[in-house]
Design brief:
This protein is α/β, with parallel strands linked by helices. It has a single domain, classed as Rossmann fold. The chain has 10 helices and 7 strands. The protein has a 7-stranded parallel beta sheet, with helices on both faces. Helix 1 packs parallel to helix 3 and helix 1 crosses helix 9.
Length: 271
Amino acid sequence: MYNLLKGKKGIIFGALDEKSIAWKIAERAHEEGATFVLTNAPVAMRMGAIKELAKKTGSEIIPADATSIEDLEILINKSMKILGGKLDFILHSIGMSVNVRKGNHYTEQNYKFTEKGWDISAVSFHKVMNVLYRQDAMNKWGSIVALTYMAAQRVFPDYNDMADNKAYLESIARSFGYFFGVEKKVRVNTISQSPTPTTAGSGVKGFEGFFNYAEKMSPLGNATALECADYTITLFSDLTKKVTLQNLFHDGGFSNMGVSQSIIESFSAKS
């Protein structure tokens, strides 16, 4: 432990269970000296074990629907009161596709489901920053991070409309990040993580296949949830004060690969 976040205060969205990246980030933030509020949608909280995490990290829980401006205003006001001032970091780890859950093919979406998933997975990030910005709730040189995936740039057929959601999420980070940087000196970035066997990620059709493919393609192998947590901590810390508007690939090198020798050999063996 390096006390990288000693004295820093924040909000962590999206911790569900021990498999979730947000859970690992909360544990690491606590270890590095941060204090924070945990939040998730009420329905998600009933499904997870967030109370266990709160006890472990000495954190308070404030349920909030991240698609509701009213809920977010209450969340951020209460968080500043609990933590004793403005915030230094925010983690947005929120994503959901009803079309994926219902098994709807990308070419045959239910557009009401599409809109709901878009609101939860991407527009919620704009809403979170909107409230933070209007309430002047972030300290100077604060850091806002959202988790994303490379399907925002490349085709992963079974990732479905979540790919569109992530593309929009990354655009919001850049656009809102400009205003946050110029006017508040706050950083906004996204981390494009390797396929990770979280509760949500494992529910994507064909997950095991492209998890194994990415493992063979990446020079360093897939990044784990804990490794993603370590990387996120550096972005919350003062060591990355001039890093903003970036989509940062944390994927063992996968994003720059064309093909690996391991993949070539696996196909050559079949011919």
